[in-house]
Write a structure and sequence with these properties.
Radius of gyration: 15 Å
Shape: globular
Strand content: under 5%
Number of helices: 4
Helix content: 55-70%
Length: 111
């Protein structure tokens, strides 16, 4: 009997992303905060999917981009239905960053 691969629903993914971003405290380093938020989402999702927290390197990418890329790949492979694997966490993360950095002199935040 083949091992069953655990899947993730859109609702579960959204819940995990929200949990990962809850209690975010900015550090005055937007790049570090962005990476920390993406890592927190990865940790929640990988744990839910019973996967080791193992990331494929992405040469030339920032830490945040590397986490995002790995997260998208894992969720895309394990999603139970068709949903946008980038929209849910991006909306939460960039909302938090905007709240904390656009009001503090940053010009813009892009995905």
């Amino acid at each position: 009997m083949a091992d069953e691969v655990k899947e993730i629903t859109e609702a579960e993914y959204e819940r995990l992303c929200e949990e990962a971003c809850a209690g975010f405290e900015p550090t005055d380093d937007m790049e570090a905060d962005e990476a920390e938020l993406w890592l927190a989402v990865c940790q929640k999702v990988y744990t839910y999917l019973e996967l080791p927290l193992d990331f494929s390197p992405l040469p030339g990418a920032t830490q945040a981009q590397m986490y995002l890329w790995n997260l998208q790949n894992i969720v895309y492979q394990r999603r139970a239905t068709d949903f946008d694997t980038l929209e849910i966490p991006s909306k939460l993360i960039y909302h938090l960053l905007s709240e904390n950095y656009l009001n503090n002199g940053q010009d813009s935040i892009t995905v």
